[in-house]
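Escalated from tier 1: calcium ion holo job.
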Amino acid sequence: MQKKGSSIFSTKEFHKKYSYSGKLGANYTKESTMFTVWAPTAEKVELVLYGKNPYRNERELSVPEQVLPMERGQNGTWKMNLNGDWDGTFYNYRVTVDTVKEAVDPYAKAVGVNGMVGMVVDLSSTNPNGWELDKKPELDAPTDAIIYEMHVRDFSIAENSGVEKEKNGKFTGVWQPGTKIPGINIATCLDHLKELGVTMVHLLPVFDYDSVDESKPDTPQFNWGYDPQNYNAPEGSYSSNPYDGKTRIKEMKQMIMELHKAGIRVIMDVVFNHTAKTEDSNFNKIVPNYYYRQDKDGNFSDASACGNETASERYMVQRFITDSVVYWAEEYHIDGFRFDLMAVHDIETMKEVRRRVDTIDPQILIYGEGWNGGPSPLPKYRQALKVNTVQYGGLQIAAFSDDIRDGVKGSVFKLKNPGFVNGGKNWEENIKFGIVASIGHEDIDYAKVYKKIKPWANEPYQTITYASAHDNLTLWDKLQMTNPNEDEDVLVAMNKLCAAIILTSQGIAFMQAGEEMARTKVKDDGTLDENSYASPDSVNQIDWQRKIKYKELYEYYRGLIQIRKAHKMFHMNTAQQVRSSIHFIETGYKNVVAYFLDGQIVQDLWKEAIIIFNGNRENISIQLPEGSWNVVVNEEKAGIDCLRKVNGCIQVPPISAYVLVKVD
Ligand code: CA
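Tier 2 regenerated the structure:
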């Protein structure tokens, strides 16, 4: 039974009396460990100690070595100081609020197998060799980021990843250097990322999640991991030993360090909007009802569509979220955070996250999904919705642009509806809106943008420019779904046009892993999987063989990335620069978007560029301004080298992108 009447938590009195800003969790030194837990409504809290043997089974776990009463501290906290060296000791809290419940410390930095117990940890003993020298790759501006969204297991689980068997699908598999498709000189995994040229990887959840049984590594299991259990410890199934609390920490740190060495920054997917369990989550066992919003009848509300939604507007929830982000940024050297269902959080919390990460590294990227999964009691104007991005002023907090995502290839919800590249009509203004990264621009007719959306970003670094992510059909599958009888070379042309639009558009560029090799997710019955969150490896794994089959497409992505990195004109830092340098061209054609880009505003070596996207099945012909123009992107190739020179009139073939530049 849920306890009603949680409205007390929103009162000023409660806030004043119980807002605690001191240290929480088990704070270790060699001499002593201080345990502090916030449980203002508890009648009694005990510290339950399980000793240091990580291989105790669950039945043994119910028999603690010691149970010690904790003392009341300030602002609703309970404390216990233990002298001596407690490194490696497993512990929980036993909390009495009407009934007695045992919970893992929400601030636990290490956990045992399946996250059922916390562990005291001497973090200095979890650093891999060379950790002190770990250096983040340079990032001058947030718009310089080119993000590759990947799942740890997908990345190296396939046999053709060339990764050693015991590292397949693990943290250690992510960074193995020199891997190739067996028997063929084609780079996979880390070397592939370097070759492709992306600057950041975004890892799907790597904190400890609930769904995969870590004690059964040989049983086929898969989950994306959007079911949080312990926020401040890594997921055990990605480690070589999920029992020992330190291995997963050390292996995750090593992965980050090795990615940094390869010039790649690391972004973590964070899911603070809900917890896997509700009534029996660690939060709720310690302070019933405090961490979650309730509707007017006192029932848990569900803006996450996962059974509950956290209440970030309450001080200790906001504090937990920001503390956790800061912890990962400092302890693990994480370079960015992607907030799942960000709109479940309030705007003030997102600003507070930004404020706190700025004190560590102002180039830490913050972005998220500017939507939620259902109605929330939090008023809309307070939600970190995409359309409320304008409220951030100049802060770097970005939202995914579903406007360009659906504009290029059609709605993610209407599977058969096409977009600009695959046969849709009237998407021109959406594409233009995407090109300028969701800011206001005088050449755009906002009444013709889908849903008549208004500019929602103040600055280009507040927009994630993308075509596909882990959710919904892959880009390739969406193209197949909308054009089921089409020849493969036409689908490749559509995919290329899509990539050209995304990678030349302003904002922060983002792609799903494998998009560059026509990633597909096919179920056993031959149908396409639009929600593969718990589908088997056969659906989710990156099939590296496709890098050979779709070599031309891969090279096209690579060339576009090369252009984006070398030319600031395609990812300018400010809205003012975007507005002054982009001028859309009236071509007289439907399903065509063309614009002039002035590179001199950002001192680009390419002084001027003309970019043309032709979504039609026919050739179009565009009159160029005076002079000689270098073609650097056409229907076949993309890159920084001149493919040919043209002047006068340019013929743009069906379903293709052209980029023409003037060097002098
Ligand atoms: Ca887990």
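The two ends are 74 Å apart (CA to CA).
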